[in-house]
């Protein structure tokens, strides 16, 4: 089969959506399919020679978020690409002008399409000085996704939300984790020492975009609560984003590791002890799965991936959704149990069976299912 994936973000971008789509594209290719990608950024020098072929379109930075881009193309340009590549099905992972033009072209040419809802952008509007437009955004998203045969999203929470909006034929495509990259065995004494931590020093970690929608104000309060219990504790932030400089200025006591990828990222996870994730805007939360696979005690809100993966008191800690007082209480508990090897081993065990292969196989099935059967040949 020939599949075309359309997305504004793809490696070398560093975020959960880009990594997920790269894994899915590579997985389809390894299963014998012809796969190409339409995106907004050229491949980086470190990209493997056998990576999927990409077509790049013009793009501009998202307002207030220069690290991410919005792709632009025309329906005619996408039709020309479809004429050349002849895809059997499209996966449209973006609701920007790139995705809208791609869907229009697909409908004009009768190409089966599956769309993906990867990011709760409608919840970001207030954070980026556009309050009161969430209802408008929901209507636009409903219109876009209902032009495709199927909409995939990573959690049952998000699927239920999309159905309430009136989006039809919603399915859940979960996420996986590379348990070799995210492995407690990557723990590094030297890395911990660079953070000022010894074996007896607890390290609290955050990994993700350093952006308003990640609830950074609560993150700083959570780190502070952690240090109330252990004044010598180290707090580490891994990632980049529009709020990084202001966070560094306001909280120089934290260690800022910048963006990390691959085994280097795995070492940063494994060298910490507690993972603090206060976001309330996730469709899934890949970083929670990565942290648990790395053997960390995770504190998160009770929704999306944490609800699916964490059994409170057994392999992590959950706070009632959007209850800041409860979240800070769970951080206190984590600070007193950061050396609880039973919970950390249980976290690793919960993640070990959640590899990517089952997700890739389901994704392949979802794409094939929307392709109509070939017409029967006339016996004459």
From TrEMBL:
Transmembrane domains' residue ranges: none
Protein name as catalogued: Glycosyltransferase family 1 protein
Residue ranges constituting the Glycosyl transferase family domain according to the UniProt record: 190-349
Organism field: Prosthecobacter algae
Domain of life of the native organism: Bacteria
InterPro entries with a match to the protein in the record: Glyco_trans_1 (IPR001296), Glyco_trans_4-like_N (IPR028098), Glycosyltransferase_grp1 (IPR050194)
Pfam families noted in UniProt: Glyco_transf_4, Glycos_transf_1
Glycosyltransferase subfamily 4-like N-terminal domain mapped to chain residues: 14-180
Gene3D superfamilies: Glycogen Phosphorylase B
Lineage: Bacteria, Pseudomonadati, Verrucomicrobiota, Verrucomicrobiia, Verrucomicrobiales
């Amino acid at each position: 089969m020939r599949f075309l994936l359309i997305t504004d973000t793809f490696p070398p971008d560093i975020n959960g959506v880009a990594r997920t789509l790269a894994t899915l594209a590579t997985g389809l290719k390894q299963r014998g399919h012809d796969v190409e990608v339409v995106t907004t950024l050229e491949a980086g020098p470190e990209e493997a020679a056998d990576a999927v072929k990409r077509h790049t379109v013009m793009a501009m930075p998202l307002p207030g978020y220069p690290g991410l881009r919005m792709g632009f193309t025309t329906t005619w340009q996408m039709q020309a690409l479809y004429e050349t590549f002849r895809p059997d099905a499209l996966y449209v992972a973006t609701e920007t002008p790139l995705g809208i033009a791609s869907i229009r072209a697909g409908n004009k040419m009768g190409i089966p399409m599956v769309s993906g809802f990867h990011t709760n952008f409608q919840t970001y509007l207030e954070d980026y000085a556009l309050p009161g437009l969430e209802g408008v955004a929901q209507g636009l998203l409903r219109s876009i996704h209902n032009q495709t045969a199927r909409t995939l999203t990573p959690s049952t929470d998000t699927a239920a939300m999309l159905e309430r909006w009136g989006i039809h034929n919603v399915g859940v495509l979960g996420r996986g984790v590379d348990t070799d990259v995210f492995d407690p065995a990557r723990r590094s004494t030297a890395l911990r020492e660079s953070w000022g931590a010894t074996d007896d020093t607890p390290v609290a970690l955050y990994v993700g975009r350093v952006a308003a929608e990640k609830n950074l104000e609560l993150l700083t309060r959570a780190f502070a609560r952690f240090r109330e219990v252990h004044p010598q504790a180290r707090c580490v932030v891994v990632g980049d984003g529009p709020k990084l400089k202001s966070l560094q200025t306001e909280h120089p006591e934290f260690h800022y590791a910048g963006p990390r990828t691959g085994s280097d990222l795995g070492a940063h996870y494994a060298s910490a002890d507690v993972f603090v994730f206060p976001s309330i805007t996730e469709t899934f939360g890949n970083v929670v799965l990565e942290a648990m696979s790395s053997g960390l005690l995770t504190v998160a809100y009770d929704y999306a991936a944490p609800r699916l993966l964490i059994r409170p008191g057994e392999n992590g800690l959950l706070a009632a959704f959007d209850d800041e007082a409860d979240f800070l209480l769970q951080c206190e508990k984590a600070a007193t149990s950061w050396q609880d090897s039973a919970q950390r081993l249980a976290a690793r065990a919960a993640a070990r069976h959640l590899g990517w292969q089952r997700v890739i196989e389901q994704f392949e099935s979802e794409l094939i299912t929307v392709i109509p059967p070939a017409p029967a040949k006339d016996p004459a």
